[in-house]
Design goal:
Elements lengths: L1 H11 L2 H24 L12 H10 L5 H21 L3 H19 L4 H18 L7 H8 L13
Helix pairs in contact: 2-4, 2-6, 3-4, 4-5, 5-6
Membrane topology: Multi-pass membrane protein
Keywords: Cell membrane, Membrane, Transmembrane, Transmembrane helix
GO cellular component, one term: plasma membrane
Amino acid sequence: MKTLIQRGLALLDSPAVNGLALLVVRLALAAQFWRSARTKVEEGSFLTINPITYDLFRDEYHMPAPEITGTIATYAEHALPILVMLGLATRFGAAGLFVMTMVIQLFVYPEAFWNPHVMWFGLSAILIARGGGLFALDRLFDRRLSLAAPPRTSGFAH
């Protein structure tokens, strides 16, 4: 029985299982921000910002310079999820989404911490700490650019 449990734990600790788990984390986080990004652009366009976006940033979010903050947020909500989904510069993309979540939390919806924001913090923190995993494009550049997590021998923590 002990051997069976050890084999099961070894399987769960394998790079493939960890890579699949990180892929799920990447897709879950990216999907949230991608859907939000698509609400800020004209229907049928890729990056033509809907003028209503600026009204939203001015009237509901009370952000300074709504034309600038709305534009930055829209482009970031498109670019960063793509990086995270592909696992390309995963830590950078996740850090950007973490910062966006922090801005949303502190300045837009400070009363909504336990809603989706805590999940976004958690998912992005995992990717910042762990990288994109085995099934990330970062792996292709690992030796040259050190974008992926260093190889591990066991467990999620050392």
